Predict the structure of Copper-translocating P-type ATPase.
Amino acid sequence: ATPTSILVSAGKAAQLGMLFRTGSALQTLEAVRVVVFDKTGTLTLGRPVVTDLLPVALPPGLSETALLGWVAAVERRSEHPIAQAMVAAAEACGATLPEVDDFRALPGYGVTATVAGQALAVGTARLMASLDIALGPATATVEALARAGKTPIYIALDRKLVAVAAVADAVKPTAAAAVARLRAQGVEVAMVTGDHRDTAQSVADAVGITEVIAEARPTDKAEAVRAFQSRGRVAFVGDGINDAPALAVADVGIALGAGADIAIETADVVLMAGDPAGVSKLIGLARATMRNIR
Ligand code: ADP
Ligand code: MG
């Protein structure tokens, strides 16, 4: 391989807003067999809005607005897009945000903290399970939300489920075409997400992806990439802290420009515009470059 052609292509790529962080990425990209996308912030806009707050068993004297204020007080410390949505919703309702202690962010799970002397947990079913919180009374509600493509968020106080919130996050306008173009290039496309199974399926249907792995923790995402590697080279495309392990394991890690610092630092290529359609352009460029060299 002549380094000059690769340099020329890297320059061309940079003009298109594609930055190579490792020299070998272009060669590896040429023969990518599977592209695995993260969902939230990668195929979706990553700007969720809170659509529902459904009480399950609110403690006496705590209104829905007050609870939203408590949730936002904790989420204010998290950089997750869902956290930002919760804070915006609380502000829109004029809720008061109290002081919180013992804040913990658990990537891929949610957040926990102490508020007004009580243990508040906000996040996935798996987070609730890890705290021994029973979800039975909310099952039907959660399934209806998830089938509508919304992400259910469990809210527990002192190890009791008190409410379920939902956030909706629109699919990026270019996502479906990006998937179709990769298929036309002969590349297999899959999605891996920490989100609820039904929510994940709804987004996958909207963009035309049939292989979906849901409710995946950050280490599960990396494990999924490894499993796909039995088919050939795998590119992983993601934007979050939770995507860093998968970006590291993939043959080519592709981060979106607006992503978390750790995602960008772990990636081989950065798509500055955050457009999933950049992936097929990258593969096209890689193939053209390597053809030139031979
Ligand atoms: P994705 O894989 O879709 O990018 P994440 O791994 O970041 O999603 O998160 C997985 C799930 O964990 C989210 O769908 C959400 O239910 C929950 N979660 C993560 N962070 C938070 C948070 N700060 N507040 C509430 N829920 C959260
Ligand atoms: Mg993401």
User: Anything to note?
Assistant: Residues 38-41, 75, 78, 80, 82-83, 108-111, 122-124, 151, 153, 193-195, 240, 242 surround adenosine-5'-diphosphate (ligand 1) (CB under 6 Å).
